[in-house]
Structures are given as C-alpha cells and as structure tokens.
Known about the structure:
With 426 residues, the chain is an alpha+beta fold.
Amino acid sequence: MMIWIKGKTKIKRFVILIPAAFGLWIAAAALLPDFRVEVTIRSQGEVEVRATIHLDGRPVYIKDAGRGTEIRWLVGGKDVPFQTRREGDALYFSGLPASGAARLFYKIRAFSSYINSGDRLKLREAILISPSGFLALTGFFPGIEGSEHEPIDIRWRLPRRWTMISGQSSVQPLHRARERMWVAARPDRQGRAEIGGASFTVSVPEGAILWGGSRFLDGLTAYFRHAWEKFGPLEKADFEAFLLPRALLAGFVLSSRAIAVSDEFGESIDRLTHEMLHWWSGYRVPYWIREGLIAYLSRKIRVACGLDGEAIFRQHLQSCLTAVRESIKKSGKATPLAEMSDMISPNARFKDLHALGTLVARRLDLDIQAQNPKKSLFDVFAAMARNRNRNFDLRDLVEQETGFRAKPFFEKYVFGKIENPENLLK
Length: 426
C-alpha cells in the first residue's frame, strides 16, 4: 500500500508493506466464535479457566463435578452478582445480564473418581495434575444450554516445557472438547500408524518407564493395524494410547478413541492391548464376551504382532488354568461362567471371570477350527464388531459365521459348571 503526503516543496511517497500473514490473521479473527476459553494448568494442582461468553438469555453452566472455586463474573470490566444452583456435576448460573459480552473466571481443584474393577482401578472422570503431567477425563469447560454443537475457541497455558500430547489449542465443537481425553506433559517417545484413513498414536511422556523401548511402540502400532484389518474400520478417525507415569495415573482409563494406562511393568502392555479391543466389541454383550473372549484374542494378536512369543501365550493359558483351579478349591465349588457374567458387581470375581473366560474362548476357537479349518474365533469377533451398535445373541452369531452349532457348547461350558477346567485346553 502507498501513502502520498504533500509538503511545501515536494511530495514524499511512503511505501507501507502489510504482510500477507497479517491480512490472513485479520480475516481469521473475524471468524472466531463468541465463546472463547483459556485454560491454565497450575503446578499446585489447580486448573484455572478464563472464558469470554456472549450471553443471549440461555442458561450458562460449568461442569465442575462440585470442585469449582473462586468463581467470578465480569461485565464491562466490573464484577456482577449472580446466583447458582447445582444439577448433578453441573453448576448453573442465574441473575446475569440477558445479553452482551461477559467474562467468567473459576478454578477447579484436581480430583479423581474411580470404578473398582477387581484388582485394577478404572478411571471414570478426573482432572489429574502432578509434576509429570496433566490428564483430564471430564468436561470442565463452561457451556451454554443448547450450544453443545456450536464452536468454542480453546487455548491452553502450560507449565514450562510441557506440551499438549492429546488435544490442542483450536476452535472445535464443545461436545467434541468434552468427549476427548486431554493430556499434557513433557513429550519423549511416540509411535504412529495410519491405515484406512484413520491414525493411531502411542505417546510416552518424559518420566514414564517405556518397557521394551521401541519394540513396545512398534508392537502396539502393529497391533492396532492388525485389529483394523481383521475386524474392520471404526467410526472415529483418530485413536490414541498413552503410557503415563504412575505418579500421574494409578490404574487405567478408556474412552471411545483413547486409552491411558500407568507404566507398571507387565500391566501396561496387557491393559493396553486388552482395552483397545473394546473399541471393536462395544458394550452390548455379557461380561464373559467382553472380558474372557477379548483377553484370549488380545493375546493371540500379540503373538501375531511380535509382542509375545508362542511360549508366553501357552504360559498365560496355564496361568489361567491355575487361577481357575485355585478358585474352585477356595470356594469349594465351580461357578458357571454365565453366573459370573450376570453379577451386577463382579469386582471380587473379575480375575476369575478373565481366567475362565479365556479358557472357554480357547475351547470355542479350537472346536470351530476342528469343524471348519477356514474359520476361527477371529471371524466371530469381526461379526461382533460389525454388530457392536445393536443387540444380538452370540450363539446365533457363531452359527451364522462359522456353521458351528454353538447352543450345545454354551449349555456345557457357559451355563454349566466346569468341574475339570483342564479339559478346556485338550
């Protein structure tokens, strides 16, 4: 752009260059949503949220799980009074102006809520903060009722050297921001695989123990690729796995496209590979299908991907047999697998269910292959994956996919008592 200035004796010409990037920034700023949030992670275990919201008469709330503190509303730079009411894990505001721009400030203290899954802890919702990182599995962002599919501009302020390894500063629909798992830490190692338009990323931040080194990362990405090819594509496009320091996460957490586990030796690879198959299985099936069958197939895939050898697989089957024998001896009776599966709270018997379910799945796989060598339990699980969003009877599914008469098998091994579990491996 040129500007001409007329003086007494001559005309001077000045040339002002406006970078193209600046012009693009102006255009982008005009498209930013009215709903903006800045999140600051504090090392003392707090999340500080600053939001700019355009009030339009609809109810405004924050999802704070009862942990919100130091809440302030400002209009025109001045504090304004407000009232609150709690509905579940949400805090609703009233008494605010009906329209116009407003600023909201609040803090949420770190917290965790676990589901007891036998000898393991499954995270239900949490904001976890430690010197080694940050994990959020709850929608702590503010919201306007009815705006869940409208865009929100989220910006993160992190401790020095930290970066977002899951999620990032961006404009995105509010409901997606609440669905995802947010993880920040000092990055270290990462593995990635792309297949069929989807991606799978394994991240190991600084401070986490990476058992097996690059073999662990390569094996997990190969595992995801193998499952994708065997069981078909999933609805979502981006999947993530995290191996986190125990100082940050004690247990594990699974969402529809992300899983995080602590870096305990032996636990991390078993938990990651097991839980990943739940992306394909869905949750419309009894416990023994979700747990025993997946426990068996995850071990089979680990052998195929080089994460385990065949000898380790056989040792695992023997350990399952030992666990079932000890359970029968301790309780003085054999409990049918279906009875374990129907328990409303299977915590105390969860390990027994895994062990017996693995052995029954092994028996079913061998019997299917004995009748039709071209079919296996992998074909059954692929059919389960295709039907994961609808109800089905596994017995019918087995017969349709393999031709194997599943009903007599179920009567004997699922609904009946197995007094001699060693027969399951013969």
